[in-house]
Amino acid sequence: MTMRLNDDEQAMLDGRDGPAVQRAMDLLVRYGTALGAQRMVDTNNVCGTVGATMPFLRDYATRKDGGLDAVFSEFNLDSPDVLAIPKVKAYSSHLQQGLDPEHAERQNVGSEIVKIYRAGAAYTAKLGIQPLNTCAPYQVGNVPVKGEHCAWMESSAVIYINSVLGARTNAEGRESAGAAMLTGKIPYWGLHLDENRGGTHRIELEIDVVSVADWGLLGYYVGEAVQDRIPVIDGLHSVPNLPKLKHFGAAAASSGGVEMYHIVGQTPEAPTYEAAMRGRRPVETIRYGAAERRLAYERVNTTAKDAQVDFVMLGCPHYSIEQIWEVCQLLDQQRLSANTELWIFTAKATKQLADQAGYTKIIEDAGGVLMTDTCSSVGRVMPKGTRVAAVDSAKQAHYLPAIMNVQAWFGTTAECIAAAVTGRWNGGYA
User: Fold this and answer.
1) 318: part of which helix (H) or strand (E)?
2) Cβ burial 48-83 (10 Å sphere, 16+ → b, else e)
3) Who contacts 22 (Cβ-Cβ below 8 Å, separation ≥6)?
């Protein structure tokens, strides 16, 4: 089945706006046709990645004639030819990068790679893409509204805006997001359609879910249970804040492939259980109690064995200013263990607030560091010799051992700060 294009879309496909836009529209048509989409939908909110901060892309950029246009052509537009990339048509924001240029030496990143980063920043600015450089754009100004059609990458961001904000996006790839930047279009399928946003599984809570860590464990368990379906959380007795929902979604998207969830009485498309389910019966009802929480804890800590902690990594997804404030309360003039490093990752805009509030100095005085633009899993950056890490993110505990070949303890933020101060892990769920 061929997609129906309007006059503007057909003109882009025919080359009216130049070869790069033509290639972008061709990619979106092929993509949409493969998915069974009948048409495009307008989008003016795209979050993706361009440039060459990731290791394999850095190698490509230095080998290929055409510089960063070559990277965009090959990896964003699926083009074997190097195209001149024009300014973006849609409002576009850049997601997390591969390093923090201000702490490159501490991250064991060489000066030549920092030069590529700087070139990429200039390239991004030339295209008109906002340099948010974060996996949580909704924390630093890109806050789509209910019903807004978006084209976002980054699983933890996708699930947040679909579920908490009621915006509409599928989990896009680098290619489709790049093409959407140049065209302002995305195939109209999946979670853009109202009929695909209803719940599939009922999750009945039998225990209180209170802390950020509680929400991370719930997300990890639910993601494994429902995979890429849409869970409806029922039985909640408190109102979760942004960090709790952020960590829940990130965990569910990591252990499974969840792109949307509903919480009865909380999220915008779930005023009631019936509304969340769109009147359908659940495929399965899953109960979540103390035993299930314990099982989730054991699974997320499956790599952790040694109590000696070399590295505490916080900020996956990137920390909010509230979470940075909490860390400062927990540190309370303590000093870190000489054998343990504390790296906290956030967006650059959030770090500016932390600088002004004095939080950065509190962290640095304790021996830690507040970093931006990346995280240990995405940038593959951590202190040399790290064997055992501690994190308060179930997502990071899921990915870090596989990517960096280390053990990872998961627990509360307080347990992680205690590990940074003592050099040992003493956490654990009852």
Assistant:
1) strand 311-319
2) bbbbbbbeebbeebeebeebbbbbbbbbbbbbeebb
3) 12, 13, 14, 15
Interior/surface letters 155-179, b for 16+ CB within 10 angstroms, e for the rest: bbbbbbbbbbbbbbbbbbebbbbbb
CATH of domain 301-422: 3.30.499.10
Q: Which residues pair with 370 in a beta bridge?
A: 344
pLDDT at position 96: 96
Average model confidence (pLDDT) across the chain? 95
What secondary structure letter does DSSP report for 408? E
Confidence of residue 63 (pLDDT cuts 50, 70, 90): low
CA distances from 65 to 52, 73, 363 (A): 14, 12, 43
Nearest to 255 by CA among 281, 215, 224: 224
User: Does residue 430 carry a pLDDT above 60?
Assistant: no
d(Cα 337, Cα 358) in Å, to the nearest integer?
22
- What pLDDT is attached to residue 65? 62
**Tokens found for residue 303:** 């790599």
DSSP state letters, 374-395: --HHHHT---TT--EEEES-HH
Q: With H, G, I as helix, E, B as strand and everything else as coil, classify residue 287.
A: strand
- The position carrying tokens 């989990």 is 171
403 three-state secondary structure = helix
Residue 32: both structure tokens together: 């949409």
Q: What is the pLDDT of residues 98-140, one digit of tens each?
A: 999 999 999 999 998 899 899 999 999 999 999 999 999 999 9
Neighbouring residues of 130: CB distance < 8 A, sequence distance ≥ 6: 91, 92, 93, 94, 142
78 conformational bin, left if phi > 0, alpha if psi -120 to 50, beta if neither: left
- Give φ, ψ of 109 to 5 degrees: -110, 130
The answer to whether 82 touches 69, Cβ cutoff 8 Å, is: yes
Under DSSP, is residue 353 helix (H, G, I), strand (E, B) or coil? Answer: helix
Give the tens place of pLDDT for each residue, 34-59: 999 999 999 999 999 998 777 667 77
